[in-house]
Amino acid sequence: MLSKTANNIRQSRFFQFFLRIDYFDILGVVIVLGTSLVLHYWSKPLSASWFFHGESNAFTRLPLLGLFATASAVASILSTRFIAKQKALGNTISWINVVVAGVVDFFNGNVGAFLTYPISMVTNWLPTKTWSRYQRWDG
Fold it and tell me: How far apart are CA 71 and CA 32, in angstroms?
């Protein structure tokens, strides 16, 4: 059950205006993609990771780490926006993104990712379970 304040905010016309504008979804994606292109983060190869460090073959020279990290950032923005709009697609994207972000984080040197990302999985599962009880769910 939402608190009275949260319910008032959610029902305000100002807040609903920002929720419904799809241009903010597009703007977020453009900002992430533009930043990734300008900083050349998208081209980060697997060989730049601690896991494949020092290896040089056709596979490790592919920019998979940068591409997956960029895609994960885009997915994070979209899942947050869709969840705010109460769309089931937001939870689906979020579930996939937790796995991708965990792998990217692990390859970027966070060896504790295998401990922290299962917590993210649980925190994604809870809203999915709770929201499935409501008929207002837009799917």
Answer: 9
CB 85 within 8 A of CB 138: yes
User: What is the CB neighbour count within 10 angstroms for residue 102?
Assistant: 19
Q: With contact defined as beta carbons under 8 Å apart, do 82 and 124 qualify?
A: no
101-139 residue pLDDT tens: 989 998 888 888 878 888 877 877 777 777 666 645 454
Closest CA to 98 of 117, 123, 78: 117
Q: Which pTM does this prediction carry?
A: 0.72
Amino acid at 118: P
Helix ranges restricted to H, the chain: 4-11, 13-20, 22-38, 64-84, 88-107, 113-131
The pair of structure tokens assigned to 36 is 């990734």
Task: Return the ∠ at Cα 92 (arms to 88 and 132), rounded to 5°.
Answer: 45
Map tokens 């920002």 to a residue: 18
Q: Which token pair is 31?
A: 């900002």
